[in-house]
């Protein structure tokens, strides 16, 4: 997608990138509509409210989160409108006492009077800091809640999960998302592919996601492909032409010869090699001579799969083609990958084919983040991971608890108290900054009241823990980034919305500015989110004002 | 949806019920397409294959699964077709060596030569038994794999989860799905609402799901609604008319009077009662006089919420309206519900209003299946549960491992061996039956080869454990149900597809025929899935034929 100019409506440009086309405003909880009616009935519809969208804890026992889903949110705002059909349906579920004028009011609603500040999509974000701040007519801003939460929650969760897999695997490995069959239905699968790519994956198996979001699509063959061949005669077309067109040979016979040759050179018995598997590999290589990557574990990896694979590779080489590698989908992945690498190197040496030792090994059996850490500890020779269930379902923690809280109404701050301090909201309209040290790393995030002066470079700023009075420190930032940017005003998009690839790059850059101890898998150091002295005092005064009489709170 | 006549295409009738409209065949893994090309290249495209779709283990450490997603699968088959646009995209991701005729072949593919047998949607199903059996041209049936798995996996998982919540709560409680904000994106939320309803929920908060699938929609108000009111003056419209139209009163003042009256009668201090909360309740009651249900825990349930609620109820009663009840979203739900019930009974007695003691108490704070069992043990007075995150994300086990395995090709059975016995497939085309005892309960499921005679009522049939030779028994069924029905043939739907409500009723009826010990939450008894003697022998002979030489397997 091209970045639109400031103020240019996105409708046409975004339409191709929406998963479902436009997200309907009825995709919400009924209570948003009933509340809107109650506001309307007591003439509170012109009240101006500020809501913060944020989460309280990083997922996966980690200390960071990647924010994703903003483009879909902005698109939702752009198209926010109840159709006549929607209104007709609402008439059937609201009580008959509901006044007709309310339906007219709903029918005329748009998001044009809403002002949205947000953190850039792909940024690393932390608990309590508003990711999106919305300001506008109370009923309208309230009506947006569920849909925005839906669009941000899973997107950010799965992008964060993907980023964690990337941190575990390292930048030099290929990571492929294979989760479509285990996702929450068709669109769950599309969301997964889209946001895993942003979080650091290189590609997906999901063809439609590739088409819609321009993500590289990857895939080879399944066990069923191998078992569908029983013998070499099942390959009905035997010939193959060399890459340079110089010759056409009986490829089936050539592969058989190579297998015999290998058997002699390496000294393995040929009677345990499955001929159906060889037929499948031959057939696959004929179809994809420049992209031959074979699944080795339908029968026995080291007694059958690897022999058939190497035979087909040597035959392809004779015709001028370079094979790609293998995939393992079961067994001891660390051990098997090392055995395979050893074998590939041996073939490389015996046949004087340097590239043979460097063939790609893909692993794909129910891999989670911990598996990758464990493989790294054991030592392995895997080049790429295909990851499905654990990635897309976020099995380790399948929900990010984003919330949407009222923080101001008609210019008056609101605080939501709770016996659980973690659940007390930060009142009023706020702006967040990220303060960086001279080494380029992020030091902390600082929330201020919206009218405060921004913290300045090379000037000390008092940063306070939001709840613990004694926890405070002066910080002198080498660089200050304002996290909140104006994204939506006057019914128009106010920032260029970047391409998926740019969001992906931002996620990587944003993570790179985070100290390694915040990112480590085990017991990471919490990143500090602080408040300004002014916000601290404001918050605690308001807290005291609202404390129930006769109670310590 | 009306049940169509046999053989009538469903396109128009289904369109309204599809979540996304038509599910595109590109919603698949790339390897399905690369395999199709390899089959095409080696002229295997006319081979006839049989695939079984099944799972290996019940989810949630349970011993049953509810099958859901069939209607979406059938609809997908009906519309299965690669558009010109799809083909153009595939051209960009397949290697340039891919032959042009293959794209033509793909472009002309439909599912008309595929025959589908399936278990009825909503039925209880068990591991290893094919839920869907597909027969047809190898590349076509292979191409359907990922999409069918995607459509069945989450649908069945979440329907099963819903059924477990229903078993925990009992039939007399109301269960409401509130999970939209935590689902996997927009369509994940729709799938959740749809299949939770099938699994036993009474309604959803998701308005669009209500509209698309005709599910009852429920909801009241949020904490933000309460905090948006600070004082009684925030209610700009004060009047309210009696139900019978006989009088119009200052409703705000009436509620204030009732609060004072209650304070005197019950003896509680009024200075701890939050007037903003009272304003919110007044406002909500004005909007929904016949559906007044208030969220009590924004401030203090027993010091503020319950007093304001009771005051508004008494005022509504004066005007001839009957309030509905309360919602609790935090705290000790069992304890608070009992306190509330006690209070409601006291008010009922003091004001001689019998219905007051029976007001509905809804609980909704991060509830999972175990919470409900724990509440039952503690004793509580909750009438309805609103359940979100744990239900829709299936946090306890966020994926059902449905697989799609080749079991026959060109009339020859295929077996997939594995060192893990659980992963060995049951070869060949099979039919499954459910055998019932004279008490009406299901005894076991029996798989037979497709050409075998069905088991007969009141005749003994030998049922064997699929792997353990010594485990076998003669069973004399009082009733036999064939689980596999023809659903798709000659490009036409072959069974009436029931309405959602009928599927829901089937799920309940199917579960009711399962012995309680299979359904209990802790250590349920496994339900037996057996094979006929003929299938047992066939399977083990084939296993032996395929065993690697020189190994015990």
UniProtKB/TrEMBL annotation, chains A, B:
<dbReference type="GO" id="GO:0004516">
    <property type="term" value="F:nicotinate phosphoribosyltransferase activity"/>
</dbReference>
<dbReference type="GO" id="GO:0046872">
    <property type="term" value="F:metal ion binding"/>
</dbReference>
<dbReference type="InterPro" id="IPR041619">
    <property type="entry name" value="NAPRTase_C"/>
</dbReference>
<dbReference type="GO" id="GO:0005829">
    <property type="term" value="C:cytosol"/>
</dbReference>
<dbReference type="InterPro" id="IPR007229">
    <property type="entry name" value="Nic_PRibTrfase-Fam"/>
</dbReference>
<dbReference type="Pfam" id="PF04095">
    <property type="entry name" value="NAPRTase"/>
</dbReference>
<keyword id="KW-0464">Manganese</keyword>
<dbReference type="InterPro" id="IPR040727">
    <property type="entry name" value="NAPRTase_N"/>
</dbReference>
<dbReference type="Pfam" id="PF17767">
    <property type="entry name" value="NAPRTase_N"/>
</dbReference>
<keyword id="KW-0597">Phosphoprotein</keyword>
<comment type="function">
    <text>Catalyzes the first step in the biosynthesis of NAD from nicotinic acid, the ATP-dependent synthesis of beta-nicotinate D-ribonucleotide from nicotinate and 5-phospho-D-ribose 1-phosphate. Helps prevent cellular oxidative stress via its role in NAD biosynthesis.</text>
</comment>
<keyword id="KW-0460">Magnesium</keyword>
<keyword id="KW-0328">Glycosyltransferase</keyword>
<keyword id="KW-0808">Transferase</keyword>
<feature type="domain" description="Nicotinate phosphoribosyltransferase C-terminal">
    <location>
        <begin position="429"/>
        <end position="538"/>
    </location>
</feature>
<protein>
    <recommendedName>
        <fullName>Nicotinate phosphoribosyltransferase</fullName>
        <ecNumber>6.3.4.21</ecNumber>
    </recommendedName>
</protein>
<comment type="similarity">
    <text>Belongs to the NAPRTase family.</text>
</comment>
<dbReference type="InterPro" id="IPR041525">
    <property type="entry name" value="N/Namide_PRibTrfase"/>
</dbReference>
<dbReference type="InterPro" id="IPR006405">
    <property type="entry name" value="Nic_PRibTrfase_pncB"/>
</dbReference>
<keyword id="KW-0662">Pyridine nucleotide biosynthesis</keyword>
<dbReference type="InterPro" id="IPR013785">
    <property type="entry name" value="Aldolase_TIM"/>
</dbReference>
<feature type="domain" description="Nicotinate phosphoribosyltransferase N-terminal">
    <location>
        <begin position="26"/>
        <end position="153"/>
    </location>
</feature>
<dbReference type="Pfam" id="PF17956">
    <property type="entry name" value="NAPRTase_C"/>
</dbReference>
<comment type="pathway">
    <text>Cofactor biosynthesis; NAD(+) biosynthesis; nicotinate D-ribonucleotide from nicotinate: step 1/1.</text>
</comment>
<keyword id="KW-0436">Ligase</keyword>
<dbReference type="InterPro" id="IPR036068">
    <property type="entry name" value="Nicotinate_pribotase-like_C"/>
</dbReference>
<feature type="domain" description="Nicotinate/nicotinamide phosphoribosyltransferase">
    <location>
        <begin position="175"/>
        <end position="424"/>
    </location>
</feature>
<dbReference type="GO" id="GO:0016757">
    <property type="term" value="F:glycosyltransferase activity"/>
</dbReference>
<keyword id="KW-0479">Metal-binding</keyword>
<dbReference type="GO" id="GO:0034355">
    <property type="term" value="P:NAD+ biosynthetic process via the salvage pathway"/>
</dbReference>
